[in-house]
Amino acid sequence: MRTCNFRAGLLAMALLGWGGHALARQAVDDTRLREVPAEEWLSNGRDYAETRHSPLDLIDTDNVGGLAPAWSYDTDSTGTLEATPLIADGVMYGTTTWNSVFALDARTGEERWRWDAGIPRGPGGPHLCCGPVNRGAALYAGKVYVGLLDGRLVALDAENGRVVWSVQTTPRDDEYSITGAPRVVKGKVVIGNGGAEFGVRGYFTAYDAETGEQAWRFHTVPGNPADGFESDALARAAETWTGEWWELGGGGTVWDAFAYDPEEDLLYVGTGNGGPWTQTLRSPGGGDNLYLSSILAVRPDDGELVWYYQTTPGDEWDYTAVQPMILAELTIEGRQRKVLMQAPKNGFFYVIDRVTGAFISAEAFAEVNWAEGVDPETGRPIEAANARYSRTGPAWLWPSPYGAHNWQGMSWNPATGLVYIPGQNGNNYFAVNTAYEYQFGRSNTGLIGRGGAPEGFVRPPNPGMPNRGGFLVAWDPVAQEERWRIAGDGSHGGTLSTGGGLLFVGKADGRFQALDAETGETLWEAATAPGPGQPVTYALDGRQYVSVMAGRGGEGGSAVWTFSLD
């Protein structure tokens, strides 16, 4: 059976009668976020590096079969739960669809408080691309921060759920929304938004964590040149656009991933797709269209751009780079490298030097036919001859706009040296809608089947593909190859790696599983609701717990399920 200092320390805490309570006298501050206690889960990816890995090993490959339900909490929500619960000082904080926020006793699941944002539904409510989801909150200085579907960023008192401050981060009555979790870096709350499909200009913003005052804002695509550019970075980006792109927004929304390296003092941000998707509509002369589908490294003090890397230049497939990122140290060709790893929608797994932004390697982890690979010298995709459907004609391409990897959290286990990616294989018929006209409040992708079609259009048969559907793959980022794969058995939620040699993951049908992180063997399974989110683990009084939010409302319910050893 595995043993380590974390286990011994937790058991000693329990015997002394203060396990889990000592931290109650501490604040969630910069130091604590930088050095997350083993027993807690303080931010969306657990730590600044977004590893979704916990060193806890009280539950391991030998005893995981003894996991049993500890408690559950009915979230009373509709829609799919995608949020990551946070745990600090014996309290669990979570968010639901339609922006309810709750605090629970992490030992028992008893509700301490609950706050509802009162978001209107239906007519008069926000325009949403992909449902009323929310992926979680942030903790800092006695507050809980959450982004709302109507574009507000709200700070709640962590003790009672009362509103401390609220700021409107988007124009009112426009087509932005917030579904991602905020991050707190150096006393600033950073948040992006969604809405590229509706014709908006992407940006992300930093606010003072204490007052809500805006500190800085970074636009991800240039605006109208006649109005001047907000920075030199945007002036350079404008050189990669043509036509009058600003009339249709441009896209590039930041609706999910962030990571932070305190040593380099760099905040990493993933950006979204073009708006409209079809490049000939927004930038008829082509171009890379910076900074769409890119990874940006900025200074958290002022938002200054340090470097960028674009995964999909001139995107016209909705191949966003907003998917979760992981920071790690890898030995590559005998050299220690500080890297950023990402598996974006386009189907390639990227390893980037996170200090300089230099490309290191990329290989396909899913079915891909839009590109033949990534050029090892330039780091640019080698596009297939028929990939640019807006110029060469309609085509069935893999991946689909749902992506080879989407919002689901991937995790990194430094002991196995593997990244665990919940992905999916699917294709899409990409064809320009020649009858496209911009419509407020409607999908404005410019594609057939996503906002209209010309009269008389007939879609050709789908050519089909092998291994359609969800998969879970253990990926070696140094060798750029898979170690093991579970394919074709339904979509997965986010993954959780632990020091006990385990990988926790939920499946679309509601099965919540613990796998051997080395082999992928299923060691334990329990039933939750369909549609799992991101599992987490924490410890109190020398006892380790594993929790996951799951549910789509309706049959099966929507709840937080928590397990521990008998």
Q: Strand order, biggest sheet?
A: 1-33-34-35-36
What general outline do the C-alpha atoms trace? globular
Indicate the percent of residues in helices: under 10%
Uncertain spans: 1-25
Q: What distance lies between the first and last C-alpha atoms, to the nearest angstrom?
A: 17 Å
Report the biggest beta sheet as strand number plus sense, adding barrel if it closes.
Answer: 5 strands, mixed
- Strand elements, count: 39
Approximate strand percentage: 35-45%
Q: Number of DSSP helices?
A: 5
Average pLDDT works out at 92
Label the structural class.
mainly beta
Based on CA atoms alone, the radius of gyration comes out at 22 Å
Question: In a few lines, what is going on in this structure?
Answer:
The chain has 566 residues and is mainly beta.
Kindly describe this structure.
The chain is mainly beta. It contains five helices and 39 strands. A five-stranded mixed sheet has the order 1-33-34-35-36, with no helix packed on it. A four-stranded antiparallel sheet has the order 2-39-38-37. Residues 1-25 have low confidence and may be disordered.
Features:
four-stranded antiparallel β-sheet; globular; five-stranded mixed β-sheet; 566 residues
Helix and strand arrangement:
Blueprint: H1 5-16, H2 30-34, E1 53-54, E2 67-74, E3 86-88, E4 91-95, E5 100-105, E6 111-116, E7 138-140, E8 143-147, E9 152-157, E10 163-168, E11 183-185, E12 188-191, E13 203-208, E14 214-219, H3 232-238, E15 250-251, E16 258-261, E17 266-270, E18 274-275, H4 279-282, E19 294-298, E20 305-310, E21 325-332, E22 335-342, E23 348-353, E24 359-364, E25 371-374, E26 381-383, H5 389-392, E27 395-397, E28 411-413, E29 418-425, E30 428-430, E31 469-476, E32 481-487, E33 492-498, E34 502-507, E35 511-516, E36 522-527, E37 536-540, E38 543-551, E39 558-565
Parallel strand pairs: 1-33
Antiparallel strand pairs: 2-39, 3-4, 4-5, 5-6, 7-8, 8-9, 9-10, 11-12, 12-13, 13-14, 15-18, 16-17, 17-19, 19-20, 21-22, 22-23, 23-24, 25-26, 27-30, 28-29, 29-31, 31-32, 33-34, 34-35, 35-36, 37-38, 38-39
